[in-house]
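Title: Request for sanity check on Tetratricopeptide repeat protein prediction

Description:
We are preparing a figure and want to confirm that the structure record we downloaded matches what your pipeline produces today. Could someone re-run it with the sequence below and paste the raw structure tokens into this thread? We only need the token string, no images.
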Amino acid sequence: MKKIVYIALFFVVTSLVAQEKKSNDGITLAAYVPQQVEGIPASAKKMLLNRLTQIITKNGISNNVYNSRFVLAPNISVVSKDITPTAPPKTALNLNVTLYIGDGISGTLFASQSVELKGVGTNENKAYIAAIKRLSPKNPEILEFVDKGKEKIIEYYNTNCSNILKQAAALEAQNQFEEALILLTNVPEASTCFNKVKSKIGILYKKSIDRDCKQKLAEASAIWAANQDINAANEAGDILSSVEPQGACYGQVKSLYAKIAARVKDLSDRDWKYKLKVLDLKKSAIKAARDVGVAYGKNQPKSVTYNVRGWY
């Protein structure tokens, strides 16, 4: 019976791939402020990163700072800096901000757009912030620039689809399922390559969550076997509550959870605070697979150094 349930869940996962709603093109970009952008106060840099993120998300793109090879990067130069003849005096800045979209791994520039921004503040920091606040995601020039960048990204995937599939197959052969998922789930739905990779995404997702289920069940079981007190229960519960319901060993996870919950009830006379995940049929397989990739990326050292020097 359990085997039938697992098989049924597998077909739910793979069939949902075909039902993925194209709420956007499936393109991912990372907002990236290079070290070369010097002389900007820290708080202004934070505002700049915020504005870049808005440009990405308000144009129907996913802001993926963990797994994207494509970046939206800025460069800022000061055109003029003046002190106003007011009481009290203020700083007036005229900035030239150039935005770039490109392949941050290969260093290939796809599109660029410059805008002039003016800001006035009681000091230079506040003048920078006032100017950067004027960087609007709705600016027609920026909208056109983003569309051009999106077209180039889609073109990249259409051209390199065979190589992407080969890379994913090589990663899968090394049991690097999450890395392979990252590679394939970054393929935009709007590309012709997506139809070639979507069935593979379902298979890799299932392999990934099956392995994750097995590892987490073993870890939680060892913790609980070593010391069956409240602390061990909570430590095991933290692990079990993160297991995906589609995992092949989820039935065993539920059994262990029930044993621990009953023991917690005996020890403390109250219900256990941990809850297992339940199957969310509204979440598409692509979204679930992307979530696995993002979670994996968050837990990896941030070692990617984007190559944007030739863009300026």
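Thanks, this matches our download. The chain is about 50% helix and 15% strand.
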